[in-house]
C-alpha cells in the first residue's frame, strides 16, 4: 500500500471514530434529556416485599390522585408506625375509598359489607400487633390500602392513608 493510501485510510478511520464518538454522545444526551422529561411525570418503583408478585412498577406522579379508585395500585407514605421507617414508601392496592363503609368486626375487615380479610394478632417476628379499629364511612380524601398477602403490613395495622400521602399510581407493572 502506498503511503498516500495508508494516510488516507488513517484519516478515514479517524473521521469514523470521531463520528462514532459524536453519535454515541448524542445518544447519551438524548437519553438523559428523555429521562429527565419522563421523570417530571413518572418514576420507577420497586417492590422488594412479598406484598405483590410484581416487582417493578412505573408510577404516574401525584397529579393523578383525583382519579383514585378501588383496585388502583398506589405508592404511598404510610402514617407513622413502628414497622415502616419514616420516608419509606409502600406499594399497596386501594381496597376501600372515601364514602364507602369500612367495618371491623373482631379481626375481620369489611368494605360496604363485603369481606376483605382478617388481621393478625402477631407480626412476622411473633410479636403482638394491634390492628386498626374503625366502623363508619371513610372520610373524604382518605383510603384503606392493603395487599391480600397474609403477612402484609398495611391499613389493617396503620389505618387510613390520606390523599396527600399518596405519591403515585401504578400504570404498568412487571
UniProtKB/TrEMBL annotation:
Keywords, in A-Z order: Hydrolase, Membrane, Protease, Transmembrane, Transmembrane helix
GO BP of this protein: signal peptide processing
Residue ranges crossing the lipid bilayer per the database entry: 21-39
Organism listed in the record: Campylobacter hyointestinalis subsp. hyointestinalis
Protein name (database record): Type IV secretory protease
Entry annotated with the keyword Transmembrane: yes
Peptidase S26 domain segment(s): 24-169
Gene Ontology MF, one: serine-type endopeptidase activity
Record Pfam families: Peptidase_S26
